[in-house]
Amino acid sequence: MKKSLIGILLCGLSTSALASQSAGIFLGSPMSGVQYKHNDLRFSLGLDEFGFAVDKTFNLGTLTRDPQLNMGYTFVGAQYVDNRYDKLGIRSGIGLEVPVNQFELYGEVGPTLYMVEDVDVELEAAMGVRVRF
Questions:
Q1: DSSP assigned state of 63
Q2: Other CB atoms within 10 A of residue 43 CB
Q3: Fewest 10 Å CB contacts: which of 6, 24, 122, 132?
Q4: pLDDT over 50 at 32, yes or no
């Protein structure tokens, strides 16, 4: 009986741990590519314009203690893009994530402060779809 209960608990824990991961594709500016999300960390790899980004996301519903804002999020992170010039920047923004069955549809917008070669601020956006697993 104890082994059965431990097995059920372990299955529940592994399912909840796996549910916090997703992977998918995104289209955006300055890069489009693939993305992997684990809990509140996102890793993006640009394929059309080579680049990568790492972001920490924050749920707006949790931040404001208002469950009506649970589909909204804000993020902060770093990004490197290789389009004519090597660009390294700090980015932030706000987005909306809509769960549909096993999928997550999302869109976001925010500024990026680039600091290599010259200092430049660009407004960037992305939209995509991820599959939860």
A1: H
A2: 15
A3: 6
A4: yes
Mean pLDDT for all residues in the chain: 86
DSSP-based three-state secondary structure for 86: strand
Report d(CA 43, CA 53) in Å as an integer.
Answer: 6
d(Cα 47, Cα 61) in Å, to the nearest integer?
32
Using CA atoms, how far apart are residues 23 and 10, in angstroms rounded to an integer? Answer: 24
CB 80 within 8 A of CB 65: no
79-126 pLDDT, tens digit per residue, is 999 877 778 999 999 999 999 999 999 999 999 999 887 789 999 999
Residue 132: other Cβ atoms inside 10 A: 16
10 Å CB burial of residue 65 (0-12, 13-18, 19+) is: exposed
Choose among 68, 61, 64, 75: nearest CA to 107.
Answer: 75
